[in-house]
Amino acid sequence: MGDSIVVSHVQEYSSNLQLLLQQKKSRLRQAVMEGSHVGKNASPVDQLGAVEASDYDVRHPDTPNQDVPEDRRWVAPKGCHVGHMVDEEDLVKVLTDIKSGYAQVDAAAIARKVDRKILEAMFGTAKTGEDGTTSTTWAAFVAANATHQIAAGGVGLTIPKLRAAKQALETAEVDLDSDPIYCAIKAKQHAELLAEQQAISMDYNEKPVLTEGKITYFLGIHFIHTELVQTSGANNQVPVWAKSGMHLGVWKDAQGFAQLDPSKSFNWRVYARGIYGATRLEEKKLVECLVVA
Questions:
Q1: What is the distance, to the nearest Å, from the Cα of residue 119 to the centroid of all Cα atoms in its chain?
Q2: What confidence tier does 191 reach under pLDDT thresholds 50, 70, 90?
Q3: Residue 288 is part of which domain span?
Q4: What is the dihedral of CA 171, 44, 118, 131, to 10 degrees?
Q5: Which of 169, 189, 222, 251 is the most exposed place for a label (fewest CB within 10 A)?
Q6: Can you give the pTM of this predicted structure?
Q7: Is pLDDT above 60 for 3?
């Protein structure tokens, strides 16, 4: 467990064990589709493409037989875990149950890992096809769909960028009335939006967009703050997405254990684990806003 246990010793510090400042729960999980899976991989959705209706101007026309474009999106599991040893001699020096405190720290670590998996899947390589062996890269998609990647332009997050992102989703026929739209931002991007008068003034909004000094909703977009937003070169990759466009697969949700380990002189072992996978479901339901980091 190391010398850090000294901070909990009663002769020097308070009896209240405090977690270090950190993100303690998943912030993105509620903004994506979720499903429980088993096996080495899973297909959360079969994708059916669009077909067009044709006119006819004769009586008793032949019944059309049109092929429907089909594809399948796959997600694969990967386990994550974290653990510590707690010496018995240290337990007797503290007034609080340090095992419980470490379990909370570990739960927070698993939650952050879930968010990282979701963010990595947004602009990573998705697996498609009948057996999941075809790679669908984000770079190839935006090369053919330029409106889904908004250039940094030497500036941070601006209202025109958000408008362009929303327009791209609308053009892709995302149902904004039933499909919530989210945007993950760092503190820097939040500060940039606070400097935009249109984002905070009631002169431009039908209802307040600030909640305790934070922008939580604007232009029909729900904002989620996380410092885990990915970077690409000198830019942050700020995602704007429809909830139905992302999927979190759960093979085993977070589990925590605290028990005596006979192989370590019967000291306490604290351990947490989870098995998850994430993927894009539909590229057109996601927009990448590049902003200066």
A1: 5
A2: very high
A3: 22-47+69-292
A4: -100
A5: 222
A6: 0.85
A7: no
Q: How far apart are the first and last CA of the chain?
A: 36
* CB contact at 8 A, 226 and 186: yes
Q: Considering its fold, how many domains does the chain have in total?
A: 1
- Domain membership flag for residue 242: yes
Rg (CA), the chain: 24
Measuring CA to CA, which residue among 23, 34, 19, 26 is closest to residue 277? 34
Pairing of strands 134-136, 126-128: antiparallel
The CATH number of the domain holding residue 104 is 3.90.1690
Question: With contact defined as beta carbons under 8 Å apart, do 199 and 215 qualify?
Answer: yes
Amino acid, single-letter form, for residue 62: D
Query: What's the pLDDT tens digit per position in 73-112?
Result: 899 999 999 998 888 888 877 767 777 888 888 989 999 9
Strand partners, 126: 136
Report, in this order, helix, strand and coil percent for the chain, each rounded to 5: 30, 35, 40
Query: For residue 244, how many other CB atoms are within 10 A of its CB?
Result: 17
